[in-house]
Design goal:
- There is one protein chain.
- This protein is an all-alpha fold.
- It folds into two domains: 29 residues; 99 residues, Cytochrome Bc1 Complex, Chain D, domain 2.
- The protein contains seven helices and no strands.
- Helix 3 packs across helix 7 and helix 6 packs across helix 7.
- The longest helix is centred in the N-terminal third of the chain and has 25 residues.
């Protein structure tokens, strides 16, 4: 009887361990190649409208300067990366586009909210300026 209980507890703990490991592995944000290789048709645009769009749609979580310190940030479970960090800015424009507008988990999908492709790319352009 004692060994049975020990076996059951061991199996349960092993299950929790493997579930936790699976969650860690699946937590990587995989961006489809289609998006990784997307070219930003507005990459040379210096339109200030991207900053306005960022303020409207992104700053409440990501903060005015992209530090992840927006007024809603404390209510999120997902830790945010600083948008001006080397880790974030090392991504292609297509990866930033995918993560910003397709989203996942607590990062909402913005495809309907920001339906203009140009506006989406202007936000990506603005995000690139956050390192300056």
């Amino acid at each position: 009887m004692k060994n049975s209980k020990l076996l059951v507890i061991s199996v349960i703990l092993a299950g929790f361990f493997f579930m936790a490991m699976g969650h860690t592995i699946s937590n990587e944000w995989i961006v489809p190649d289609k998006y990784k290789n997307m070219k930003n048709p507005y990459a040379d645009s210096d339109d200030d409208y991207g900053a306005e769009l960022y303020e409207i749609h992104c700053a409440s979580c990501h903060g005015d300067e992209g530090y992840g310190d927006g007024k809603k940030a404390d209510n999120l479970e997902t830790p945010m990366r600083e948008l001006g960090s080397e880790e974030v800015l090392a991504q292609t424009d297509g990866e930033l586009y995918y993560k910003s507008f397709i989203g996942r988990d607590e990062m909402p999908n913005f495809e309907k909210k920001i339906d203009s492709e140009e506006d989406r790319w202007l936000i990506v352009n603005f995000m690139r300026t956050l390192a300056e």
